[in-house]
Amino acid sequence: MAYSYNIATSKKDNRANICLFSCHTILTIVDLFISTFLVAYIYQYCSSTSEYIFAVGQFYITNYAFNFIAIWLISYIVEKTNRVWMYRFSLVLELGVVLVAIFLGDKIAALAWLGGLMRGIFESFYYSSYNVLKQEMVSRKSMQNFAVLLQVISKVVSIVVPIVLGALISVSTYANIAIYIAIICVIQIAVSFGIKAHRPEGSKFRLTGYNKSLAHNQKAKHIMRYVYLGCLIYGCTTCIAILVNICVMFQYGSTLSLGAITSIISVVTMVVILLVSKFTHAGRRSWLFILSACLPLIGSICFVLLPGKVTLIVFNLCINIAAVIYGALFDPYRNGNLKELGLYSEITEHQALCEMLFCVSRVVTFGIIMILGLWGNMTAFYVALVVATCAGSAMLIYLLFYEKKYLQLTKESEEEQQKKSLEQIGETNENN
Predict the structure, then answer these.
(1) Domain spanning 14-198+208-416: which CATH class is it, in words?
(2) Coil, strand or helix: which one is 262?
(3) Would you list the domain boundaries of the chain?
(4) What does the pLDDT look like over 251-299, one tens digit per residue?
């Protein structure tokens, strides 16, 4: 018998949720170091633009290719073992990645594929367990607030940390700063011991069985296929932020500048997400989706036609605003709908499928970036930037249609349940 979950009476464990929330917030700091600033650091050791683009593509395609290969196996282990301990193990792996960065020092810049592989190993274990824990621990009615608050706190962290990291790396070395990041990782591991979650009893990881259960549940089939298509499209948009970071290094050439720009944009996006969560409601925000889809397109066209520092900052701001709006609005659907559909025990399969779809589209997009690096044609690079931005805008329009479809299906389901309840009451009265 699977763990019984009641949406109306579900309660959250505040202490455990705070610990999970805190650990993921700390990840914002560490991830900035082992992804954004590592890629920026590689720039110093590349002799040409094409070499740098190729190295970045190599880093990320290795990262996501390993994720795709490993995610199924690791999700199987998460389902069969204590998912909290698997989560802690992923944090130990995160610490290991930072320690390897200390050991390799400047050599890591010349081994982009190794950096991507290390990050891929850590992310495979981390998100296989974190996504499951979050969906199990946070109640459906709290999912929206959890997603928004996580976005806001992450942006607060991103205001100060990028400037500090950028300045320290510019005056020191990547390996030296890794020592301080390692200390933060140890704190993160200690905090993780406050996390606990309910595990469905007797659950098994069966991806094919999960697909069959969706096929026999019409409402689940309609709702979740939109989620999975959304995951596939969203994976393509991941490269936008990376492409923009490459442009920042071209225009400014320093980690300090990258940190300062990241911090400024974090302030604006934090305000945006607070306003969106407070003043918009599901079913009445079509204008928000359309505006968010138009901004990145306008920003990309302005930058491509008039490449420069000002247009780059405007473009960067536009894509980040669109990204946080997507994250805050789509995340509750991805992580909360399964509980509503009565498929609580299939959480691990659902999250594994989402991550695999992300990886497929990401491997394709970063493979294209590697080809652009070999080609060495900046015009093609800018075209790829605009195309990726179009994919991001399409994701927001798609989310608009998904939300409308979800609300329609939910309304129809509620009306059907009310009708059945009235029929049962009528039958009971007749019998009496």
Answers:
(1) mainly alpha
(2) helix
(3) 14-198+208-416
(4) 666 666 666 777 777 777 777 777 777 777 777 777 877 887 888 888 8
